[in-house]
Amino acid sequence: MKLIGLTGGIGSGKSTVSRIIAEQNVPIIDADLIARQVVEPGRRAYKLIRKHFGDEVLNADGTIDRPKLGAIIFGDSDKRKVLNSCVHPYVRLEMFKQVFWHWMTGKKLVFLDVPLLFESKLDKFVNTTVVVFCSELLQLQRIVKRDNMTEEAATQRIRSQMPLSEKVKLANIVLDNSSDVDQLKIQVKNLVRRLTPPVSSWLLGWIVPPVALAISGFFIKDYATRGARLLIAHYSRP
Ligand SMILES: Nc1ncnc2c1ncn2[C@@H]1O[C@H](COP(=O)(O)OP(=O)(O)OP(=O)(O)O)[C@@H](O)[C@H]1O
């Protein structure tokens, strides 16, 4: 199975690319969605956030007030670290479970949609990294339109992130989202075709690890049994 890390800058078009990929019946693991699910009431991350930030970050219905929590950690790196330590381990665990499930069910290609792929060093765990790129001006225009935000606020959000030009330098593949959505669709379809492994290498990658594990397990067990027998023989000598 090939694991592809998909990332970009705010408003550069990651979600749009994800939707197009999903239309091709290729599985997408959405880190943002998982991050929202792991902080639902009753979950471990939710309890940790409550413990560290108190009930003032809760809505009346007990859910986390995300904008309020966002405002608390914005510009306070210590509090941001605390929040990350509450949430990230559970996000990673859930992502790992989903990756494992896709591998078990014989998927050839799986995308991980992670906005902070490079910042969180998750790029080390994927086969290929893809960055969705557009100019800062287009990012700005698209965010202002989508989120009904002022240009100043949008600029501030863009500047608070790792520059998109830096991500482009780190990427294996860059999708240029400067044109319309139809052009983007063509690029994504070509990308999926290019990245899908041929059946032979997919079969090898799927079958070899469990067979290797089973064989090594057999030998380890065999040696352990022989070792135990020798020990028993040694200590039971008169
Ligand atoms: N090629 C395009 N042409 C016109 N509009 C686009 C194009 N690509 C994306 N958009 C629009 O731009 C906005 C931002 O795109 P999208 O939500 O996919 O970005 P994103 O990278 O996921 O952003 P965020 O990081 O904020 O979640 C959306 O409203 C989307 O419909």
UniProtKB/TrEMBL annotation:
Sequence intervals crossing the membrane: 199-220
Domain of life (superkingdom): Eukaryota
Molecular function terms from GO: ATP binding; dephospho-CoA kinase activity
Record flagged with keyword ATP-binding: yes
GO CC terms of this entry: cytoplasm
InterPro entries, sorted: Depp_CoAkinase (IPR001977), P-loop_NTPase (IPR027417)
PANTHER family noted in UniProt: BIFUNCTIONAL COENZYME A SYNTHASE-RELATED, DEPHOSPHO-COA KINASE-RELATED
Protein name per the record: Dephospho-CoA kinase
Natural source organism: Umbelopsis ramanniana AG
Lineage: Eukaryota, Fungi, Fungi incertae sedis, Mucoromycota, Mucoromycotina
